[in-house]
């Protein structure tokens, strides 16, 4: 009887081993896609006074577009000089691809980038690929974060400015007053406060 | 004695269970970084006749820059109309961050994007953020792949054109003759055939 018990116990131990290993394997293979994994640790977070920081690694997020408002076409003082490199946090993009919606927590970073010096008054220059505009120097960070409970007055989005100047940028920022950013987004943006018409990857012209 | 044996066996079974679970956990946490995982399945590959395809998911690669050569500044016929959205394959970017070099296999994709219609002859238009240029429609794919054995005549890089038109793009492409692409890159690019001076993230002006 002892031997029978022993054999049974060994069988159940083996089953446990295989079972646990199987569970671990399933866990490994059913982990979120790589882009989602990256995002969960990288989206905007807030401290107790509502400040947030520039998310680490945002330049490796999903690029959505690069509107260009050169100084040369804006009386030497563009509001957003000059390229706007715009990125969406990868987990939010995964949700957007499935639903067409910006989910709660969606973080979009816009980095401003100054141009190589122009050959012409409009700020453009001649390069091997043609006459045009070519990025040179990082020069500012704006960010928008969807959090409907936190930012009801901004149609669910908070807007942040970490400085319009070369790095280093500000460590922290509080949400901007509605009149500084969200008013213009509300009046002019294509879909849910985002200028999707400039970002063909988002499929909402 | 049977009971002692039983207890020992149970102990070793428990140790095995914990050990296997531990190994599985280590395996999960020591996996390559997310960006590298994405890249290894996504870089350019070649068939027996040297053709390659557009890598899946390239729009989620690491964005490096968006030079702009508008039709309006190039007699209505820019060579690369109009935004050039340029992406580097993430595993190659990880290596570049560490070494400052483009490793063998580095794949860089350039997607051309046409502009929203201009309000002015230069192709620019007025938008809420200022006068400038705003992307609208995907319109072409060029790609360069570093493979020194395969492309010695292109200074180690092969150049591919999948059509300069709206999607769908060509399924496959063979390397372009040297005079079509690599000659110009060799004469004008900043570093190792790449126009790094237009891509501030690469840190080589």
Describe the structure.
The structure is a homodimer. The radius of gyration of chain A is 24 Å and the shape is globular. In chain A, helix 2 (about 35-40) packs across helix 3 (about 90-100). Chain A is about 25% helix and about 20% strand. Chain A has two domains: about 1-30; about 30-200, Cytochrome P460 (Chalcone isomerase). In chain A, a hairpin with a 2-residue loop joins strand 4 (about 125) and strand 5 (about 130). In chain A, the strands form two sheets. Chain A has a five-stranded antiparallel beta sheet. In chain A, strands 4-5 form a two-stranded antiparallel sheet. Residues about 1-5 and about 10-40 of chain A have low confidence and may be disordered. The first copy, chain A, is an alpha+beta fold and about 200 residues long. Chain A starts with a helix and ends in a 17-residue tail after the last helix. Chain A is built from four helices and seven strands, in the order ααββαβββββα.
